[in-house]
Design brief:
Chain B: InterPro entries: BP-dep_ABC_trans_perm, MetI-like, MetI-like_sf. Chain B: It is found in: Cell membrane. The complex is a heterodimer of chains A (441) and B (272). Chain A is an all-alpha fold and 441 residues long. Chain A has helices at 2-25, 29-34, 38-58, 61-65, 74-77, 80-90, 103-132, 142-168, 190-197, 199-234, 242-249, 251-254, 257-267, 274-281, 295-323, 327-335, 340-368, 371-377, 396-406, 410-433. Chain A folds into 2 domains: 15-188, no CATH class; 194-438, MetI-like (MetI-like fold). Chain A is built from 20 helices and no strands. With 272 residues, chain B is mainly α. Chain B has a single domain, classed as MetI-like (MetI-like fold, Orthogonal Bundle). Chain B contains 14 helices and no strands. Chain B has helices spanning 2-32, 50-58, 61-92, 98-108, 117-126, 133-143, 145-157, 161-169, 174-185, 187-203, 206-211, 220-228, 232-256, 258-271. Chain B is globular. The relative contact order of chain B is 0.14. The chains are: A mainly alpha (441), B mainly alpha (272). At the A-B interface, helix 7, helix 8, helix 10, helix 11 and helix 12 of A face helix 1, helix 3, helix 4, helix 5 and helix 6 of B.
C-alpha cells in the first residue's frame, strides 16, 4: 500500500514538473496537454500571442527580417512595446518639427506599454502557479469576467494619469521644455531638491501649507459646530415653523457651489460691493471693507463663506441623529440629578460626535482639496509678490492649478501633487483603519 | 419667564440665520430681472426679462445646455451601471485580490481627479478624443467608480445574502439575480448615485475646461464662467439669468431627493 502511494506521489510530481516546464515555454500548454484543460490552455496561449502580434503589427520587424530596412532603429521601426519602452527611457531623440519626437506622448505610450507588460507578467506567473498545482483552479471565473473589463478602463482613466503625474515629478517639464517643440529629460529628484532647498520655493511652500492647514481646520470645525448649533436650535421644543426653516437653511447645500461662489464674489467685490454700499449708506462703516483684497480679511472671508456653504449638510445629519436620540438616557441622567447642560455635554455631544466622526474627517479631506472655493471666490488673491506665483489665500491645490495652467511648471506642480497624495492618503488610511469596516472587509 | 426668553431667542436666531442664507439667493434673483447689469443697485420696481432674451441671443446658451444635458444623462447611466456591477461583485463574491482592489480603490478615490489633468489631457490627445464629449463621459463614468463602489458595497452588504441564495435555489442565474433581486432592492442608493452623478457635470469646471475647450462642445459651467470672467460688472445680469436657469431645476431635484442624499452621505461615511 505504502509503496503504491509513494509511486503515485512520484508520478504526480513528475506530472507537475512537466506541466510547469511546458507552461514556462508555451503559456497554457501544461494545462492543455498534461491537465487536459483545453479552454484554459488556449486562453493562456492567446495571452502569450497577444503582445507578439501587437508588436509585429505596429512595428516593422517583418520588413526588417526580410532585409527591406537598412537603417533600422527602434525610434522609427519599433513596435508598440519596444518603441514604448524606448520612449519611456529616452523621451525622444529628435527635437521639434513635424518629424520630431513628442516627449509627453512618448511618455504616455511608454506607461501604457509597461502597464500592459506588467499585467501580462501577472498572467504568466499565475499560469506557472496554476500548472504547478496541476491546474486545480477551476471555480470562480465569474467575478474576474465582470471585473476585468472594468478594471482595464479603470487602469487607463484613473491609474495611468496618476502614474503619469508621479513620473512628471522627475522630469524637467516646464516653460523652457514644452513638447512638441522641445524634448524632455529625466532629472531625478532635482525637482524635489528645488522645492526644499531654493529658499523662495520653500518659503512659499511652507506658507501655503500652513494656510492650507489653518483653512482646513477652521472651515471644517466652523461648519461642524455651526451645523450642530443649528440642529440643536431646530430641534428645540420652542422652535416654530421648523419645516420652513429647514428648507430655507438647506439651500446653500442644494444650490450648485460654483454659482453661490460667484455670487459671493460679486457681493463682496472691492469697488461696488453691494454689502459695502449698504453698510456705508446706513452709516455703519466709514470706508469700504476690503473683503477680498486685504490678505487677512480675505482669509477670514473665505472661511466664513465656506461655513455658509457647508453647515447645512451637518445640520441635516445631526438633526436626524438628535431626533432619534434615545430618551431613556436623558430620563436616567435627570434621575441622577444631571442638569440640562450636563445632559447636553455628557450625553448628546459624545453620541453625535461618534456618529459624525467619519463625516468630519471626510469633510476635512474635501476642504484640504477645496479647489473650487478658493479659485472661484478669490482666485487665490490678493496676489503676493513675495510668493512664487501664489496669492495669500491660495491653498496647495489651487497653487498647483495655477502652476500648471498659468505658469506651465508641470514639474514642480507634480512634485506637490505627489506630496499632497501622500498627506491625504495617510490621513484617510488612518481614518479607514479605525473604522469597523476594515475588519469585516 | 425664562422659558419664554429662550423661546424668543430660538425663534429669532432661526429668522436671522434664514436671512443670512437668503440674502445672496434673493440678490441673485433680483439681479436676474434688472435691465442694467451693474451689480449693486437693485430696484424691485423695474423688473424685466431682458437678461434672458440677451442670454439666448448673444451666447450659445442653448448649445451649452444641451451639451451638458447629453453628458449628464449618458454619464449617469454609464456610471450607475459600472458602480452597481462592481459593487455587487465586490459585495457578493469572494475571490482572490478582492481585498487588495477595494483598498486600492479607497486610496485612489482620495486623489483629486484634476491633479492628473495634464496626464488626462495628453492621454485624450494621444488617442484623438480631445474636444469630444465622450472624453468627459468616460472620465466621469470611470472616475465615479472608486468612491461610489465603496458606498454601494456598504449598502449591499446590508441586504441579507439569504435572499440571493433563495433566488439561486429557485434556478435564477447570477445575472438574473442581479437584475431581479439586487437592483430593485437597492433603489435608494441607486437614486443617490444617479442624482449626484447627474448634478456633477452642470457645475464642474476644471475637467470640461481642459477637455472641451472649443466653443461648440463647451458645457454650461465653462461657457458661463468664460463669459463672465473679467467683466462681471457689465454682464452680471446675464450670468445670473443663466445660472438661475440651472439652479432652479438642480435645487428642486436636490430638495425632492433630499432624503436619499442625506442617507447616501451618512452611509458613505459609515463604510468609508
Amino acid at each position: 500500500m505504502l509503496k503504491r502511494s509513494e509511486r503515485d506521489d512520484e508520478k504526480s510530481m513528475n506530472k507537475k514538473k512537466t506541466a510547469f516546464l511546458l507552461s514556462m515555454v508555451l503559456w497554457g500548454s501544461g494545462q492543455f496537454f498534461i491537465c487536459k484543460q483545453r479552454l484554459k490552455g488556449v486562453l493562456l496561449f492567446a495571452f502569450q500571442l497577444l503582445p507578439i502580434i501587437i508588436e509585429l503589427f505596429t512595428g516593422y520587424w517583418l520588413e526588417y527580417a526580410q532585409g527591406l530596412i537598412t537603417d533600422f532603429s527602434i525610434r522609427l521601426h519599433g513596435g508598440f512595446f519596444t518603441k514604448g519602452i524606448w520612449g519611456l527611457i529616452t523621451l525622444g531623440e529628435k527635437a521639434g518639427g513635424r518629424y520630431g519626437d513628442h516627449s509627453t506622448i512618448l511618455l504616455i505610450n511608454g506607461i501604457m506599454a509597461v502597464i500592459i507588460l506588467l499585467l501580462l507578467l501577472v498572467v504568466y506567473i499565475w499560469n506557472l502557479w496554476d500548472a504547478w498545482n496541476s491546474a486545480k483552479y477551476t471555480g470562480k471565473v465569474f467575478p474576474y469576467l465582470i471585473l476585468v473589463p472594468i478594471g482595464i478602463a479603470f487602469f487607463f482613466v484613473v491609474i495611468m494619469p496618476i502614474v503619469f503625474t508621479f513620473l512628471t515629478a522627475f522630469l524637467n517639464y516646464n516653460r523652457d521644455h514644452l513638447p512638441p517643440g522641445q524634448l524632455l529629460d529625466w532629472v531625478g529628484i532635482n525637482n524635489f531638491k528645488k522645492l526644499f532647498t531654493v529658499s523662495n520655493w520653500f518659503e512659499t511652500f511652507s506658507k501655503v501649507l500652513i494656510w492650507t492647514v489653518i483653512w482646513t481646520l477652521a472651515s471644517t470645525f466652523g461648519t461642524y459646530f455651526l451645523g450642530l448649533f443649528q440642529a440643536v436650535i431646530l430641534n428645540h421644543k420652542a422652535a416654530r415653523g421648523t419645516k420652513i426653516y429647514r428648507t430655507i437653511l438647506i439651500l446653500p447645500w442644494a444650490i450648485p457651489q460654483m454659482v453661490s461662489l460667484l455670487v459671493f464674489r460679486n457681493l463682496l467685490n472691492g469697488q461696488f460691493s453691494p454689502i459695502n454700499q449698504f453698510l456705508l449708506e446706513h452709516g455703519l462703516i466709514r470706508e469700504n471693507i476690503p473683503f477680498l483684497s486685504d490678505p487677512l480679511t480675505a482669509k477670514v472671508t473665505v472661511i466664513v463663506v465656506s461655513i455658509w456653504l457647508g453647515f447645512p449638510m451637518f445640520m441635516v445629519m445631526m438633526s436626524g441623529i438628535l431626533a432619534n436620540m434615545d430618551q431613556s438616557l436623558y430620563e436616567a441622567a435627570s434621575l441622577d440629578g444631571a442638569n440640562r447642560f450636563q445632559c447636553f455635554f455628557k450625553i448628546t455631544l459624545p453620541l453625535v460626535f461618534k456618529a459624525t466622526m467619519p463625516n468630519l474627517i471626510m469633510t476635512m479631506a474635501a476642504n484640504f482639496n477645496g479647489f473650487g472655493l478658493i479659485y472661484f471666490l478669490t482666485q487665490g488673491g490678493p496676489a503676493n509678490a513675495n510668493m512664487q506665483f501664489a496669492g495669500d489665500t491660495d491653498i496647495l491645490i489651487s497653487w498647483i492649478y495655477k502652476l500648471t495652467l498659468d505658469q506651465k511648471m508641470f514639474d514642480i506642480a507634480a512634485v506637490m501633487s505627489v506630496l499632497l497624495f501622500f498627506i491625504v492618503g495617510v490621513v484617510s488610511l488612518w481614518n479607514f483603519r479605525r473604522t469597523v469596516s476594515f475588519k469585516e472587509l | 419667564m425664562k422659558k419664554k426668553i429662550i423661546a424668543i431667542i430660538v425663534n429669532v436666531e432661526l429668522i436671522i440665520m434664514s436671512c443670512i442664507v437668503l440674502v445672496p439667493v434673493i440678490w441673485i434673483l433680483l439681479s436676474t430681472f434688472q435691465a442694467n447689469g451693474v451689480a449693486g443697485k437693485l430696484s424691485v420696481s423695474k423688473l424685466t426679462l431682458i437678461n434672458f432674451k440677451k442670454l439666448l441671443s448673444e451666447t450659445n446658451y442653448e448649445l451649452w445646455f444641451f451639451n451638458t444635458l447629453k453628458i449628464a444623462l449618458i454619464s449617469t447611466v454609464c456610471s450607475v451601471f459600472l458602480i452597481m456591477v462592481t459593487a455587487w461583485v465586490m459585495s457578493r463574491f469572494n475571490f482572490k485580490g478582492r481585498k487588495t482592489s477595494l483598498l486600492a480603490m479607497m486610496i485612489l478615490s482620495m486623489f483629486p481627479t484634476f491633479l492628473s489633468m495634464t496626464a488626462i489631457h495628453t492621454l485624450f490627445q494621444t488617442i484623438g478624443l480631445m474636444g469630444k464629449p465622450i472624453s468627459l463621459i468616460v472620465v466621469y463614468s470611470v472616475g465615479a467608480i472608486p468612491y461610489n463602489t465603496w458606498l454601494v458595497k456598504g449598502y449591499l452588504d446590508g441586504i441579507p445574502k439569504s435572499i440571493d441564495e433563495a433566488a439561486y435555489i429557485d434556478g435564477c442565474t447570477k445575472i438574473q439575480t442581479f437584475r431581479k433581486i439586487v437592483l430593485p432592492l437597492s433603489k435608494p442608493i441607486i437614486t443617490y448615485c444617479a442624482v449626484s452623478q447627474f448634478m456633477l457635470p452642470w457645475m464642474d469646471y476644471i475637467l470640461p475646461n481642459i477637455l472641451l475647450s472649443n466653443d461648440k462642445s463647451k458645457t454650461l459651467a465653462v461657457g458661463l464662467f468664460a463669459f463672465i470672467q473679467g467683466r462681471e460688472s457689465t454682464y452680471f445680469g446675464m450670468f445670473a439669468a443663466g445660472a438661475l436657469l440651472i439652479v432652479i431645476p438642480i435645487t428642486l431635484v436636490f430638495i425632492i431627493f433630499q432624503k436619499y442624499l442625506v442617507q447616501g452621505v451618512a452611509a458613505g461615511a459609515d463604510k468609508g
